[in-house]
Amino acid sequence: MLKGTLVTSRLLLKEAVHEECSELKSVLYTWTDKQLVEGSEYESEEFEKWISEGDLPPIENASKENYRLKSIYLNEENKLIGYTGLYMGYPSKDCLWIGILVIDSDYRKNGYAQEVISCISDEACANGFSSLGIAVYLNNWRALRFWTKAGFD
Question: N or C: which terminus of the chain carries fewer CB neighbours within 10 A?
Answer without folding.
Answer: C
